[in-house]
Amino acid sequence: MSISFSCEEIIPEVTSNSRWCEGQVGLSVSQRSGFIPQWYDPSGNLVSSNWNFNTPSIAETTVYSVRLKHIESECLTAPVDVTATVQQVGEVAVDNVSRCDMGEVTFIGATAQDSDTFLWYDAAGDLKHEGAQFTTSVTAEETLFYVEGRNTAEGCIGPRKEVFAYVETPPGLPQTTDGAICGPGRVSLAAEGGSVYRWYSQQEGGESIAENNGTYLTDTLENSTQFWVSMVSNSDCEGNRASVMAYINDEFTDSITFIGNRRYGNGEVNIQVANPKNNTEYRWYDQGIGGEPVHIGDSYPTDIEIGDSLYVEAELNETCIGERVNVPLHIESDFDFSAYRLSCATAFYSKQVTDVDCFIKSFEWTFGDGAPTVFGPESIHVYGADGTYTVTLKVSYTCGTEDIYISEVTHDISVNSGGFTQDQFRSETRVFKSPQTNRVVNSQVMTYSDNWLLPFQQQNLRNKSAFENGSQGVFRTASNYYYEADRGRSANTNTAQDGLYTVDGFNWQLAEQELIPDWVVQQTVTGYTENSKPAEVRDALGIYSSELYNNNGQMLIAQALNSGRNEIAFSSFESEDYLQGNWQFGEDNYTRFAQIPVILGNGYAVIVNKRMEDISDIETVSGWSTSFNLFTPLAPSPANVWSFNFRFNNANILCMDQHPTNPNYTILVLDQLASRNVWLGSLHHLSFVGLDNVGVIDDNYAHSGNKSLKITDSQEFEQPALDLQQGKSYFLSAWASTKTGNTLREGTEIRVTFIDEEEEEVGETFLYASSSGIDGWVQVKGSFVFPEGASTMALTFYSGNQGDSWWDDIRLHPEEGEIQTYVYDAVTDKLVSTLDQENYGTFYFYDAEGNLRLVKKETFDGMKTIQEAEQYQVER
After folding, report:
1. Cys staple from 187: which of 246, 341, 501, 544, with CB 3.0 to 4.6 Å?
2. Nearest to residue 247, comparing CAs of 309, 188, 335?
3. What is the spatial distance between Cα 31 and Cα 744, in angstroms, rounded to a whole number?
4. 638-671: per-residue pLDDT in tens?
5. CA of residue 582 relative to chain centroid, distance
6. What are phi and psi of 817, to 5 degrees?
7. Considering the entire predicted model, what is its pTM?
8. How far apart are CA 551 and CA 561, in angstroms?
9. Angle in degrees, CA 537, 836, 702, rounded to 5
10. Is pLDDT at 633 greater than 50 in this prediction?
11. What region does 512 belong to: left with phi over 0, alpha with psi -120 to 50, or beta?
């Protein structure tokens, strides 16, 4: 049987649903007995027959439909729509961002529907930031980023959106044109290279003061002012600022100064504006008003003469024309020279030597006789014959610029042979004023000098310049002065006033010449060793004390009172040198200084306190001079020039003449100028003296130390290092041994021979054993008078009838003087002996550690032990 059923009136009861983001949505229809549900997708496909239906994963809202099917009749109800709603986070709304020049870019104002935060990614998809605002790292070019919205509560992310950071290259520096006006006002400045410009009053920061198309008119300015301008693009990208100057130029006045406007005599000059200003044109005129310029430029080469006039006006930036100013022209008297006849030679002196504003580069002398040109502000020349010669002085110099000017002067000079005459000498009286100081209790002065003759025995030191070896340029003590005057004393004692005196101001130049009364020389150092130890000192009474050193001037070997350093001698033969302590026993050269006392010098000529026949064989001299403007005994001084401690070496003696009024004086003419003025100083003749006769040194037998002089039969030694005074008495002593006990072999003695300048003997004396011996050594001693006419002496040692003799501790000193000598070990430098006034020794002995162990003393009664000590350490 069949059952009839109608579904038309039945409407399914459905429930729609929703979700966030992509996924399944659950839908349902109310159950009804006898029916089954039929679910269809939007395409009409049957997708489910369940009362509850989970959609497949969907990303957007989708409408499904459902119908009920009657099981028995299989009729279908009308379809009912069921909505599966999918809620999405919206796409982010944010603008692309542009910037000028490289740097960071910030995205702001991001929005998206249903989003509570934003995620930012770079082009590679790497997360860079979370938040509504994002600042990139430094960016130099267009860069792509992504952004998406996020609903944090639902965990839902919206679609990604592209955003761009655009970077625009800023404009470059504009080209600027400075502006200038004459005096205060508004200045027009210009820039080009772009289309829009911004003007500023500072280099960085601040607000722009104008924006225009490239021309800016400043406000009124009182002074030159700096501005800056930049170029701006259409997108408002601004470049760096360039400087531009607004000049407010001053009116030109006499402030223009010049160089090169000085010369000697008429001639060419190159006058220059000193420190010319930029953008300034200088016009030169030969008249003060009107006329056309004779030259335009910073400098003007022209010829000038005495009486010429020259003017300059300046125009700055074609805006300011200054006053026309006078150019001072300094035309000095042209160069000239003087000539003086000095016996065999003629001395020439330029009257101009130095100038404050000009630098003299060279002096060139030609003497008119074909001789080579000579250079220098002065010269001396020996003509081969009498006559008249044309002498020319050519001077090259600069005056404030690098341009070299030339001046020439010519004179005819008459040359007549003949020596000095009395007419070339005159007497003068000079008065010197000295400042005074009142109420003085005590006054002393010490002076120094940096010119010393040092007795270098090493050739490498002798060959060095004076500044290199220290004989010049090193200040050493020269003299000590004290002021001697009557002290004030009141009739009634006044402690506040009594005991004081007035002092004349000290002047070391005048004091050395004893021209200031009451300043008394207390002590003068007259010589130093090569190691700067005082070797000779003269006291206020003129009495000398001296010292001798060995080991190149380092170790003291003799001290003497009332004795000059070249009047004493001592040798114990411990040194490797044959020359020691002023004695010479071998071929080593001795540097001998023959002192030539200076009375007074003037220019190339000098009066010395030596008879002409005594120095006639000397061809060169060395020395130093100090110039004083005191008086002029020779020809008038060529120039009033101060010369301070001038040193000269190996000056040739061109000629010498006997002084016309004093036969004990000689006048020397030198080829080196000691001073252009009157001078005082020192001369010496340097010679090297050696012996052909070489002594034999015994290293194993000695009176003191370890060595002695060994003589076989006899041997003579000349002593050129000594400088003994004629008529003065001297004492010589030595220790001798013939290894024959405490007596000497008969004939063992010393012969002292006196020799004159002609190498002829002028006397002799013999010295003999004077006492009994001590430990095999006998003293040979005696005194002698150094005779008139003698210049040096020689020692001859005799060994007696046969065999050898040994000699040690040989010494010499003035008989009225005192001497003490010292002997050192050649290896350890320890003191091994001191020899007293009688040449008796005190001997010092040391243990292996160098400690003093034993002291012995020679006496008339033999050797005595003075001290003996043993030192040792005990280990515990």
Report:
1. 246
2. 188
3. 166
4. 333 334 556 778 899 988 888 888 889 999 999 9
5. 42
6. -100, 175
7. 0.58
8. 22
9. 115
10. no
11. alpha
Cα dist from 680 to 301, 317, 507, 640, 788, whole Å: 47, 63, 15, 15, 29
The token duo for 21 is 């983001």
Q: DSSP string covering 519-588, please?
A: EEEEEEEEEE-TTS-EEEEEETTS-EEEEEEETTTTEEEEEEES--TTS-EEE-S-SSSSEETTEE-SS-
Using an 8 Å Cβ cutoff, are 731 and 783 in contact?
yes
Encoded tokens for 645: 């401690």
DSSP 275: S
Quote the tokens at residue 370: 């074909």
For the record, the structure tokens of 823 come out as 């002997």
Q: Is 542 left (phi over 0), alpha (psi -120 to 50) or beta?
A: left
Token pair 């509850």 is found at 52
| DSSP 8-state code for residue 2 | -
The position carrying tokens 């009362």 is 51
Going from the C-alpha of 450 to that of each of 478, 523, 700, the distances in angstroms are 9, 17, 44
Strands ordered across the beta sheet of 242-249: 179-182, 242-249, 225-232, 196-200, 210-212
Please enumerate, as own/partner, the contacts of 616-619 that have beta carbons within 8 Å and a separation of 24 or more.
616/656, 618/594, 618/653, 618/685, 619/652, 619/653
Q: Would you give the DSSP letter of residue 611?
A: -
Residue positions counted in the chain: 876
3-state SS of 346-396 is: EEEEECCCCCCCCEEEEEEEECCCCCCCEECCEEEECCCCCEEEEEEEEEE
Distance of CA 461 to the CA centre of its chain: 25
Going from the C-alpha of 476 to that of each of 408, 509, 534, 556, 561, the distances in angstroms are 45, 16, 9, 19, 22
Alpha carbons 705 and 689: distance in angstroms, whole number: 28
**Tokens at 437, concatenated:** 């100081």
Q: What are phi and psi of 423, to 5 degrees?
A: -65, -20
Secondary structure of residue 476 in the 3-state scheme:
strand
The separation between CA 101 and the C-alpha centre of its own chain, rounded to angstroms, equals: 51
